[in-house]
Amino acid sequence: MKRHILISTIAMALAAGFTSCEDFLDKQPLDKVSTSTFWQTTKDADKALTAAYASFRNGTFSAVPAGGPCTEQECLSDNAVTRGAHSAIQQGGINPSTGGLLNDLWDDSYKGIAAANYFLDNFDKVRDLYSEVDFNKLKAEALFIRTFYYNELVVHYGAVPMMLHSAKLGDGFEKLPRSPRAEVISQMLDDIDFAIEWLPNVAYTDGHAVKGSAVVLKCRILLNDQRYADAAKLAGDFIHDPANPFKLADDYAGIFFGGQINNPEIMFSIQFTAPDDFHALDQMVASRMTIFPSYNLRAAYEEGDPRIKMTMYEAGDPWVSNDKTGKFEDDGNRAEGLVPFTGMAFKKYVNPTIMAPKASTLSDQHIVKMRYADLLLMYAEAMFESGQGGDPKALAALNAVRQRPGVNMPPKTELTRENIRNERRVELAYEGIRYYDIIRWDIAKDVIPTVQYDESGKMRKFDGNLWPVPQKQMDIMGDIWEQNAPWN
């Protein structure tokens, strides 16, 4: 039994999980480093924290050189359709053996947790080299990373095994139960509170989490748990604090391409810098068009909303990949894929100047995970759902997003559930937010079956708010775990 467990997802993730971040880590894996050669200097600690941040660098949570970016997961919601790797999940009828993202999100989350735990287990060895403020700041970053991954696991799988330390042989991790959802949430809130206390209240610039990043993450956890009053207070206190360093950006499109450096709205992102550090977003999204807007998303925009043209291409729009007509259409199309059956393709995140991106295209757009508009809209929602929707500050938050420079949509005169939810949909389209929203609102079962996913008219099937635990993990754990319904 133990021999098989050692090659399981948890065992691999918790024993190692450190690759592709620093030459040192590639040459001398951290799980094999002797205490006589490592954890002696602040540089050692920096490398271990770098390994924890590097756990985001995959197709599940950001992007990779030769594969689809995490933004393709928008097809899990009613906002998008794919003809790529997530087709099986999109169509419905998944099961514990479906594989793909159902396995990858589990595996990659536990690898990230392993990297954070390794740092947290060993950081005390160099405590004397730091001031209290600097020591707790780095610890807070690791806790932020671990909390981020546990939140992903809880949303997708519900109860999950909770590891707060690195696994070692003989610890009995092969018998670890799935911790109840409430227990995991309690731990996440404890950890993220520490992060909020010790992370600096500064603008986000260099890829390291700041206080605002932790505030956004805690708001997400609270909203997922329907703790609306707590979320409203947390978000409101931060938004209205004169020391709040964030604001809405003047250029909506620039948040995703062209204006990301020191952008005042970005609160956390996974950063890339070509030519040494790049990914394939332009090729997969702009040329192959493996992910594209659904009819449903297009219908959600109000007439005259300029975010339409900053989010998607439509028939007849100017398009650099057509050297015959210069328009978004198949006549003269030089892209790798045909124009999708919906007649639309995503423009957000895309470099609009690259014609027919190829595998050699070195894309380096930062993958935005959190931004200020999301926090404003979470605040508006939390205020409304906690019975404070009549507070002018709540309506002002929603209208600030609608009337941001370059958008300038007419202000709403009252806060309603419908206009809050629709504003989140169009403002945050193709940012991986919509799926989490429709799950926590418990409307996925209603909206997913309304999505057409191919030109023949086939409609999607909804499989449930939770995914099954990957079968390979269930096989290893035997009768210790019970599978999620309806696959149990």
From TrEMBL:
<dbReference type="Pfam" id="PF07980">
    <property type="entry name" value="SusD_RagB"/>
</dbReference>
<dbReference type="InterPro" id="IPR011990">
    <property type="entry name" value="TPR-like_helical_dom_sf"/>
</dbReference>
<dbReference type="GO" id="GO:0009279">
    <property type="term" value="C:cell outer membrane"/>
</dbReference>
<feature type="domain" description="SusD-like N-terminal">
    <location>
        <begin position="23"/>
        <end position="214"/>
    </location>
</feature>
<dbReference type="Pfam" id="PF14322">
    <property type="entry name" value="SusD-like_3"/>
</dbReference>
<dbReference type="InterPro" id="IPR012944">
    <property type="entry name" value="SusD_RagB_dom"/>
</dbReference>
<dbReference type="InterPro" id="IPR033985">
    <property type="entry name" value="SusD-like_N"/>
</dbReference>
<protein>
    <recommendedName>
        <fullName>RagB/SusD family nutrient uptake outer membrane protein</fullName>
    </recommendedName>
</protein>
<keyword id="KW-0732">Signal</keyword>
<comment type="similarity">
    <text>Belongs to the SusD family.</text>
</comment>
<keyword id="KW-0998">Cell outer membrane</keyword>
<feature type="domain" description="RagB/SusD">
    <location>
        <begin position="294"/>
        <end position="485"/>
    </location>
</feature>
<keyword id="KW-0472">Membrane</keyword>
